[in-house]
Amino acid sequence: xxxxxxYRTCPRSGLQFEHQAEWLMKANAFVxxxxxxxxxxxxxxxxxxxxxxxxxxxxxxxxxVLTAHGIDMLIYWIIFFEIAILYFCASTLLRCRIAxxxxxxxxxxxxxxxSVVNNIAVFRGASSVMMTSYxxxxxxxxxxxxxxxxxxxALIAVFVFFGTLVVAKKEKTYQGSVPLVTFGAITAAIxxxxxxxxxxxILIPTWLMSIGVVKEVDPLVYRTIWWAFGHSSxxxxxxxxxxVWYLVAAIAFGAxxxxxxxxxxxxxxxxxFLQLASAHHLLADPGLSTGWKVVNTSYFMYFAVLASMxxxxxxxxxxxxxQRQKGFTKGLFEWLRKAPWSNPSFSGVxxxxxxxxxxxGISGVMMGTEQLNMIIHxxxxxxxxxxxxxxxxxxxxxxALTYYLxxxxxxxxxxxxxxxxxxxxLFGFSMYFFCLVMMGAGTLGVSRxxxxxxxxxxxxxxxxxxxxxxxxxxxxxxxxxxxAGGAIYIYITVxxxxxxxxxxxxxxxxxFTPIPRTAPSAVxxxxxxxxxxxxxxxxxxxxxxxxxVLYYFINWKYLSTLWGLS
Amino acid sequence: xxxxxPPAERLWYKHPIDRVEGTWIVIALTWCLIMFFMMxxxxxxxxxxxxxxxxxxxPEMFMAKTQAMVxxxxxxxxxxxxxxxxxxxPAGSDVYFIARLWSFYPVLxxxxxxxxxxxxxxxxYNHGFSLQPANINIQIVPGFEHVVxxxxxxxxxxxVVCNEFCGIGHHKMVxxxxxx
Lengths: 566, 180
Description:
The complex is a heterodimer of chains A (566) and B (180).
Chain A (H helix, E strand, L loop, with lengths): L6 E3 L6 E3 H32 L8 H34 L8 H26 L14 H30 L9 H31 L8 H12 L1 H22 L6 H14 L16 H8 L1 H27 L8 H4 L6 H24 L13 H28 L8 H27 L22 H34 L8 E2 L12 H5 L8 H26 L3 E2 L1
Antiparallel strand pairs in A: 1-2, 1-3
Helix pairs in contact in A: 1-2, 1-3, 1-15, 2-3, 2-4, 2-5, 2-7, 3-4, 4-5, 5-6, 5-7, 5-8, 7-10, 7-12, 7-13, 8-10, 9-10, 10-12, 10-17, 12-13, 12-14, 12-17, 13-14, 13-15, 14-15
Chain B lengths: L18 H27 L7 E4 L2 H15 E4 L7 E3 L6 E7 L2 E3 L1 E4 L5 E7 L4 E6 L3 E5 L3 E8 L4 E6 L12 E6 L1
Parallel strand pairs in B: 3-6, 4-7, 6-12
Antiparallel strand pairs in B: 1-10, 2-3, 4-5, 7-10, 8-9, 8-11, 11-12
């Protein structure tokens, strides 16, 4: 079986691609970008409607478009891309053939069919239930069926990934432990298994309810299990995009992890504790005990937050160490000033790391605190937070990775390199601003998933403060700028595939070249154990900590002024 | 030698740790524990903790209790198109508040500094209790009666905005609450 395929070694990167795996990666990544395009078009409708002075779409259209935007971006764009990353981390990084390519294609087909069926249900108009589809509000049966088909497909793809790891081990394509990036991908895949199983557990009965087989699904049970799917799927993203950060650090700088032990332990903490985060969606719910809320939403005493804070240090730290070895040793920050800022793979990842930490991370811990949650629950602060994690974090990282993959995987020269150089800045910074003003409006109480903040036609309308209107207008402006940034990405990606100059892929061979064993270097033996290798990164980390502590306690102060609640 | 290659040293968990990392681990872990104890500590010393007292209920049961309260304590009728009664229950009593498609019932009138047991439920879908401009946000789940003890600390006219999507009339679902 292992002889029926071919391998090529990319002359530009030295990466080895197996024929079947290569096509699977291309197909999954391409469909992902199609969903990003579609979700991006829907985003125009969302931001131009939430911009109070514009309020473009009618209410029913808006709720339909918002439902589709959420599902297409959060589920289809990201998971299709993640499947491509999983195959890359297994087959390409371990230099082995992909396990059961036919089953992998079946998984791909199921995911495509499921996502299309689900979207058709949404655009028929009777399934505007938002991504969360809380029962007893019901969508059409095909809404759930599409999601279930997609989930089954994704689960099969995850198993193909695990199978590929087994193949690599058996055929001895590498020695010792898997690379750190693959280790991160395994973390993502383990979390994905749990996540998709949770989705199936709750969506199958809900689908049966929609066709009249099951009488009732308990609303609170639904919320609890749905979030084990809904939030955990964002944890797949975290594990996946952090793996990509390590990947890009390795590619752009030749950086080695500061300490394999710290980085891998941090990934292990994700597997153990990150799942618990889904509980913070239920902090404002009835029926769950205080102890349950505190234990779960602190991710069991914040061990998963600790893990993120570690990755946030070790990735820039590894870059700093690599830069210092190249001679950029002046002061605290020469390594950063002399970084390849015009390489979109690097700039995208760096903007993503900073934004994910400062905007997504700090806000996420704040809103996930049991009592503080009451001041932001279901306000537009929540989408402000998750656009910082999922768009600045995951999407921007995947965009940065794409710029690397166009010549390497797709064998095309990238068109419009100057445009590509600017794209991460335009997209990243407009998203920073977008998230900030959304969180600002949310702090004033403005609701999420709301068509008209003026409450036209309401019997007892509420008048939001002027600042809330101003911030929602800025959400509109920043959103349009970010959409323009996204459009440039689509143009460069699709344009490169269509019109980019074809590049040499490297000769195909019937045999793989195993990864040579690297000898432990003298540096690695004593590496860092006595030194203070990344002082610049440490300084940045202290700035982060200061921002975190200040913002955290400001919110407690705000909370203490509210009505007494007990 | 890099993150995309197998580590040179076989046993990755025996790698040395740089002092930058070691120091940061200690700082970050300390901060995480402080945050954890803030949550626990606020239950002891803080005044804003969401109650977890919950009962199963049905729309009929809850409606009956609400109507009894409305019949007893209505002080006037709100001048809105639904002519919602304004109810002023005595301090310390059980106050029932209904969320349904697409209104809140009734309008409440509470006294500043007094404590009430606010019972929340939904007659149909999930709804949101978003008290503005105080900015207190609580989820309302059908089938569950959530009893929250509240003590208003400022007088004025408050609005209750539904902030959980509940269908096409969602953006018109606003209730009112007065604090004297």
